[in-house]
Specification:
The protein is an alpha+beta fold. It contains 14 helices and 12 strands. The chain has helices at about 15-30, 50-55, 90-95, 100-125, 130-135, 140-145, 155-170, 175-195, 205-210, 220-250, 255-260, 265-275, 310, 350-365, and strands at about 35, 40-45, 60, 125-130, 215, 215-220, 285-290, 290-295, 295-300, 305, 370-375, 385-395. The chain has a 5-stranded mixed beta sheet with strand order 1-2-10-7-3, with helices on one face. The chain has a 3-stranded antiparallel beta sheet with strand order 4-12-11. The radius of gyration is 21 Å and the shape is globular.
Length: about 400
């Protein structure tokens, strides 16, 4: 940046979730539109009102310049996340078509089988890292089912995506490039196969993307590949963090754990409150197309602006006792865990299904579980617990 802007906070000072939320609480009160020199410099919107308004105003706050802080060290742009409307729209339309209630209902039995299979070794062992062992592998099976990949790819996808995410957070361009290259190979193979053997567009993202037309012309193949490459990894970043955070919460609040075990019908409502509490992103970004004043601070084009969803979801002016779990919040629908506007998470319905199944099976197949040992917090741009050890007691008293 070519102008001097006071540094209001240091996002690299801690990755401990509680400490990060304390930082956001301070910023909301002291400096709700905050600036930092970290990662090349960026702004952070921390209040619910400003984050929501920016997310909805996609004509002013655009995604095509920088969509995440820190961003991919190679600076690649992939649809739909890195495209603005109207270029963004056909990619979202194609992906949304494959996430209907009917499609998700058809997927549920297979997803439940995967959840049980992945959970079982940890339960039989009596302990394990719910985020790294279950949270990293189970979403790979969900992605495999959604994209209709060869089942043999799921374990490789889990490992490749995990290595990519770790390298991305560390800005290790060499490993990012290597792991991304492998996922591009998967995406290109998927496109090649669907050109030969197309599937129903409501059941297969690659076929849906290939069938899309803009002014009578198909989408550019490289953009189709890019959208599928993004789809391969986007569902692998947040789930381990959310699962780790929820499991840690329940592993320390045995009263809530037992209530949800006894009343599984409460799980969907509990998940919405967990999503509010443990929104896994702090670094989704936009840039403004013209000088814009937000709460008295001027933001110029080219200066990244993060929509700090994790802070917005604990804004005390919107949510009473925002750091506390409340099962029956009357305004829970106001949470921003999946964003808002054109760039809201397209996979939100599938994520909710995945998390519901994971929690149902974890509770049904245990008598209790306890969070033990240290925990590891996620680095920017995520927020939450990436390593969470549990000890299990199985029905009948076994471990």
């Amino acid at each position: 940046m070519n102008r001097h802007i006071p540094e209001d906070f240091d996002p690299t000072s801690t990755d401990d979730p509680d400490e990060v939320h304390a930082l956001y609480r301070d910023l909301r009160a002291r400096c709700p539109v905050a600036h930092t020199d970290a990662y090349g410099g960026f702004w952070a919107l921390t209040t619910h009102r400003e984050v929501r308004a920016a997310a909805l105003d996609d004509a002013r706050f655009i995604s095509s310049v920088k969509a995440v802080v820190p961003s991919d060290p190679r600076g690649l742009r992939r649809p739909p996340l890195n495209f603005d409307a109207p270029r963004h729209t056909p990619f979202r339309k194609a992906l949304d078509a494959t996430l209907s209630r009917r499609r998700l209902a058809a997927m549920e039995p297979a997803l439940r089988e995967h959840a049980v299979r992945v959970l079982t070794p940890m339960l039989e062992r009596g302990s394990g890292d719910i985020a790294q062992e279950f949270g990293a592998l189970y979403p790979a099976w969900v992605t495999t089912e959604w994209l209709n990949l060869d089942p043999e790819l799921a374990p490789e996808l889990a490992e490749t995506a995990a290595r990519w995410v770790r390298a991305w957070r560390l800005q290790d361009a060499e490993v990012v490039n290597s792991m991304s290259g492998r996922m591009y190979e998967m995406a290109r193979a998927l496109v090649a196969d669907r050109r030969k053997r197309p599937r129903p567009v409501t059941e297969d993202p690659a076929s849906s993307l290939l069938a899309q037309r803009v002014d009578g012309e198909p989408l550019e193949e490289e953009h189709v590949v890019g959208a599928l490459r993004q789809s391969l990894v986007v569902g692998m970043v947040a789930p381990p963090i959310v699962i780790g955070s929820i499991a840690t919460h329940l592993g320390t609040d045995h009263g809530l754990q037992q209530r949800l075990r006894a009343e599984p019908a409460l799980i969907p409502a509990a998940l919405e409150e967990f999503l509010r509490l443990y929104a896994p992103y702090r670094g989704f970004a936009r840039t403004v197309v013209e000088p814009t004043v937000v709460l008295g601070r001027e933001i110029l084009p080219g200066e990244p602006v993060t929509l700090t969803y994790a802070s917005a979801n604990r804004d005390e002016t919107v949510f009473d006792d925002p750091d506390e779990f409340r099962l029956d919040r009357p305004n829970i629908a106001e949470h921003l865990a999946f964003g808002r506007g054109r760039h809201r998470c397209p996979g939100a319905p599938m994520a909710r299904l995945m998390l519901r199944i994971a929690l149902e099976e974890l509770l049904a197949r245990t008598a209790s579980f306890t969070a033990v040992g240290s925990r590891e917090g996620a680095r920017m741009p995520e927020l939450g617990i990436v390593s969470a050890h549990l000890e299990f007691v199985l029905p009948g008293g076994g471990t």
